[in-house]
Amino acid sequence: MDSETMSLRSSLEEMLDSLRRRGEQPTDLPPALPARPNARGRLPLARRSLPVDFKIECKTSKGTKKKGGEIEDWILKNGEGAIFKNGIFGRKRIRAENQPEESPYFEMAEGNRFKGRDEKVDDLAASTSSVGRSDEKMKNAADYVLKKELRAWCWLPTGKWELGKVQSISGNNARILLSDAKVLTVAVENLSPANPVMLDNVDDLIKLSYLNEPSVLHNLKQRYSHDMIYTKAGRILIAFNPFKDIPLYGNDYMVAYKQKTSDSPHVYAVADTAFSEMMRVGTSQSIVISGESGAGKTETAKFAMQYLVAVCGGSEIECEVLQTSCILEAFGNAKTCRNDNSSRFGKLIELHFNPSGRICGAKIETFLLEKSRVVQQARGERSFHVFYQLCAGAPPLLKEQLNLKPPYEYEYLKQNDCLTIDGVDDAKRFHKLMEALDIVKISKEDQEKAFAMLAAVLWLGNIAFTVIDNEDHVEINMSEGTAFVCM
Ligand SMILES: Nc1ncnc2c1ncn2[C@@H]1O[C@H](COP(=O)(O)OP(=O)(O)OP(=O)(O)O)[C@@H](O)[C@H]1O
Q1: Tens digit of pLDDT for each residue in 311-339?
Q2: How far is the centre of ligand 1, averaged over its atoms, from the C-alpha of 301 (Å)?
Q3: Angle, helix 297-311 to helix 316-332, in steps of 10 degrees
Q4: What is the pLDDT of residues 398-433, one digit of tens each?
Q5: What is each CA distance from 258 to 332, 356, 465, 476, in whole angstroms?
Q6: Which residues does ATP bind (predicted)?
Q7: Which of 15, 71, 296, 448 has its CA 20 to 30 A from that of 270?
Q8: Which CA distances in Å does 47 have to 41, 105, 147, 365, 398?
């Protein structure tokens, strides 16, 4: 095992140990998530014009009937041989028992919508006994789709989804009129039902009649294009990174969410719900923020903390809590190819409240810091912010004491020729860092020790060695770095 893996393992072990120490069993299990529809296509309500609660039937090319999980397995194994591989829309051919007045699927709506899995399998078994009628039913379904000029998403060979209207269906192919007036012939298995226009821009994905991939992406994209970066998916909040300042934050918004006069999806609403539930139920609440690098997790966590601090306090401790971000980011964040302020560690932030709902303490645990970044960074990336901040912003006396040079003088910092970040003033950030350290009451003496350690690390990187024989023995080169580190 190499040393890096060893250090990662030990960090991981440390984290697990610390989690274990925090209690073997969570005493505050989160409430069960509400039942959510199948992501492949939630069946719409009976009153809507689209097909509802169809049954699945399956017959192999040899005529044997299959049901339940067998169907899925069989379709996967048999590919093109699966005659029911795809219906009018999507993977499943669906059929209704009775002919509705308007929709060929009407009858199934109320009775079967909330049936459990076993009941549905029973339905499936029943439905396979009437395969003979399926062609007629499918024709009705096709007629219905055509009559209503239903919109559908087409999966194009280019790998994109395109919205169009179904013009005609013949065999396994459908002709689709696209928005640019082009007509495409698409295999029906490459179609997914689109939601009616009235559902454009809905603020909660569970309001969509069809929860398929293109419909979800379309909805999120539309909202994003109107700077609506938050969307709900039931109890989950989806947050998009706008990469620009959007006027969605600040006092007025906080008041609106506190007084519940706004119910648009927002990180403030999530923080408010967590706080209200904590006060109501009397147990700890967690907000889990996840996403890929650059998705906006750190910013979102900061907005959530700002909200909690604003509505639950006004005393000194809250101010200290907010200042921790500045310190953590200086020491643990760095510029990467994906994010100019990427957190190179994980963190667990606890805010402690007293019985009256005021913040009375906080605890931050960090884990898995990417230590190797100190000595090596990928092209276009920097080491941790604090090194550049120290070099740029240290007061003259400190600079002299620590023999500080500009970043390009240090091997650890200059290796990638990436010394600055557009729009970021490292010197100013250093002053903010010192203020934050003062606010969280780190003594001047401890601050100086920390800065001396950082300077020592930089100088250590400047020590060079020369191989002096064939057995790879080395000798240290005398240089400014060597002299300074040995002092
Ligand atoms: N809600 C927002 N409003 C404005 N800008 C934002 C918002 N969220 C993120 N950003 C911008 O995107 C950048 C990256 O976001 P952030 O650092 O929060 O991502 P992250 O998910 O924490 O990334 P990493 O995992 O690399 O740490 C921020 O520095 C900020 O410029």
Answers
A1: 887 667 888 888 999 999 999 999 999 99
A2: 10
A3: 170
A4: 999 999 999 999 999 998 889 999 999 999 999 999
A5: 32, 16, 62, 63
A6: 291-298
A7: 15
A8: 17, 11, 17, 52, 74
User: 207-261: per-residue pLDDT in tens?
Assistant: 999 999 999 999 999 999 999 999 999 999 999 999 999 999 999 999 999 999 9
| Domain 55-199, CATH number (from 3.10.20.810, 2.30.30.140, 2.50.20.10, 2.30.130.30) | 2.30.30.140
**CA contacts within 13 A on the Cβ side of 455:** 23
Q: Is 298 annotated as a binding residue?
A: yes
Residue 149 assigned ligand-binding role: no
Each as own residue / partner, the long-range contacts of residues 201-204 (CB below 8 Å, 24 or more positions apart, any chain) are 201/226, 201/228, 203/228, 203/231, 203/232, 203/264, 203/265, 204/231, 204/232, 204/233, 204/234, 204/265
Annotated domain spans of the chain: 55-199
Instruction: Return the structure tokens found at 89.
Output: 């829309």
**From CA 350, how far away is CA 341, in angstroms rounded?**
22
CA 402/CA 346 separation, integer angstroms = 30
Q: Tokens 């203020």, residue? A: 435
pLDDT, tens digit, 9 for 90 and up, residues 82-115: 323 344 554 443 333 343 434 433 333 333 333 3
**Helical ranges in 293-420 per DSSP H:** 297-311, 316-332, 385-393, 396-401, 411-414
**Residue in 231, 243, 249, 369 to alter for ligand 1 test, most ligand atoms within 8 A of Cβ:** 243
Identify the weakest region by mean pLDDT among 60-74, 170-184, 275-289, 356-370.
60-74
CB 302 less than 6 A from any atom of ligand 1:
no
Q: Across the strands, what pairs with 361?
A: 352
Bridge-based pairing of strands 346-353 and 342-343 is unpaired
Separation CA 182–CA 158 (nearest Å): 16
Q: What angle do the packed helices 267-281 and 251-258 form, to 10 degrees?
A: 40
Provide φ and ψ at 141, rounded to 5°. -60, -45
381 a known binding residue?
Answer: no
